[in-house]
Write a structure and sequence with these properties.
CATH topology of the largest domain: paralog of FGE (formylglycine-generating enzyme)
Organism: Actinocatenispora rupis
CATH class of the largest domain: Alpha Beta
GO molecular function: gamma-glutamyl hercynylcysteine sulfoxide synthase activity; iron ion binding
Number of strands: 11
Pathway: Amino-acid biosynthesis; ergothioneine biosynthesis
Strand order of the largest sheet: 9-8-7-10
Order of helices and strands: HHHHHEEEEHHEEHHEEEEE
Number of domains: 2
Oligomer: single chain
EC number: 1.14.99.50
Family: Belongs to the EgtB family.
Radius of gyration: 21 Å
CATH architecture of the largest domain: Alpha-Beta Complex
Number of helices: 9
Bound molecules: fe (ii) ion
């Protein structure tokens, strides 16, 4: 097989995996649940289904393949920038049967294009980049659809085995000191890295300490029990205003008795599991209460990628190999984070656990472009979100597919959002 054949095969496998997940998430509920809006924060599930097909049509079928449009008439309806999520249920959306047929037609054409086009000669197709972009886009919407499932009320429809348990308990107050010095942040070489992860550049950091594991339910419950939600001094001014206005008293989906609702089931919260469904303001307030702070994005990435033995930045905390089920809790194999210490093979060289998988981790940093950033392939992918007050999240969650998760991958959201699968860890300066 030629290198291009191997790449085509990989792309086809990834496209199929993403599609199986999309259909699993859609088929889990009936048509009524597919068209209804489960939260004003989310699209109806059937919008996500047709939207992933529409993006695939725009990029793979029309742009790369130069083929006739399948449904040019629906482009506007599925343009995320034209219609905020809250307005999407009122649109004349494709119904579930039409949406499934549409994405099947588009996929057939896209696979045809994949087989016919040289994956070289044009930056968009070199190394299969635009196919990787579409695969990651579908997987990102699958995570969004999973978050919609978590907001949905009614009987449970999703099931998964529990994540692995730690063989050796890890102290959830332990920290790791990262020595001062420069490291390479971002990447110029990862073929499917998105524009906002580029270019690789040197960042020099003073020494700092970072939590060895994400903040656990046990530690977060101490903050709640200590009156953390009643003490303005732990909160930023904006955070306190939001806490009051939104009436926040504990993480989303908690019941206050050591249980939480997860995908329609009320379950016990293991004390040593990473806390989930907190917004940036809650994460920052906890950190202040604990006498610490959120790590910056650069601190998170250095802890995750910097190898003190070689001075190199690696693709993942464990090295350069793609994630497997033994490295990290990714890919919706489980419907919850794993208890801390459950992935000893995923530990970074300095001894930091579970940086990748389990929960997205809020960082202190506002989303912006790296020095030397250039838009590729379009402004709306990331540049329009720079410097607007979005906060960066890192590392992916149990609901993030490995193809959409790297040591350099950047996610962002408003500091009030907590329907995403987000937790955090804390850091402090080291004199
Ligand atoms: Fe999208």
């Amino acid at each position: 097989m030629t290198e291009t054949d191997t790449l085509r095969e990989r792309v086809a496998v990834e496209l199929t995996r993403a599609r199986e997940r999309t259909l699993t998430l859609a088929d889990a509920v009936d048509d009524h649940d597919l068209v209804r809006q489960h939260s004003p924060l989310m699209s109806p599930l059937v919008w996500d289904v047709a939207h992933v097909g529409n993006q695939e049509e725009l990029w793979l079928v029309r742009d790369v393949g130069r083929r006739e449009p399948v449904r040019a008439d629906i482009d506007t309806m599925y343009d995320a920038f034209q219609h905020p999520r809250a307005d999407r249920p009122a649109l004349p959306l494709l119904d579930p049967t039409e949406a499934r047929a549409y994405i099947r037609t588009v996929r057939d054409k896209a696979l045809d294009v994949l087989g016919a086009e040289p994956l070289a000669g044009r930056r968009l197709t070199t190394d299969g980049f635009v196919f990787g972009l579409i695969v990651q886009h579908e997987q990102q919407h699958d995570e969004t659809m999973l978050a919609t499932h978590q907001l949905r009320t009614g009987p449970a429809v999703l099931d998964a085995p529990p994540p692995p348990a730690p063989d050796v308990p890890v102290d959830d107050r332990a920290e790791v000191v990262v020595p001062a010095g420069a490291f390479t942040m971002g990447t110029s070489v990862e073929p499917w890295a998105l524009d906002n992860e580029r270019p690789g550049h040197t960042v020099d950091l003073p020494a700092y300490a970072i939590d060895a594991v994400p903040v656990t339910n046990r530690r977060y419950a101490e903050f709640v029990a200590d009156g953390g939600y009643d003490e303005p001094r732990w909160w930023t001014a904006d955070g306190w205003a939001h806490r009051r206005e939104a009436g926040l008293t504990m993480p989303m989906h908690w019941h206050g008795d050591g249980t939480a609702t997860r995908f329609g089931r009320r379950t016990d919260l293991p004390p040593d599991e990473p806390v989930l469904h907190v917004c940036w303001y809650e994460a920052a307030a906890f950190a202040a209460w604990a006498g610490r702070r959120l790590p910056t994005e650069a601190e998170w990435e250095k802890a995750a990628r910097w190898d003190p033995a070689t001075g190199r930045s690696r693709r993942y905390p464990w090295g350069d190999d793609d994630p497997t089920a033994r490295h990290a809790n990714l890919g919706q194999r489980h419907l919850r984070p794993a208890r801390v210490g459950a992935y000893p093979l995923g530990v970074s060289p300095l001894g930091v656990h579970q940086l990748v998988g389990d929960v997205w981790e809020w960082t202190a940093t506002e989303f912006t472009g790296y020095p030397g950033f250039t838009v590729f392939p379009y402004r709306e992918y990331s540049e329009v979100f720079f410097d607007r007050g979005y906060r960066v999240l890192r590392g992916g969650s149990f609901g993030t597919d490995p193809v959409a998760c790297r040591g350099t991958f950047r996610n962002w959201d408003w500091p009030v959002r907590r329907q995403i699968f987000a937790g955090f860890r804390t850091a402090r300066d080291v004199a």
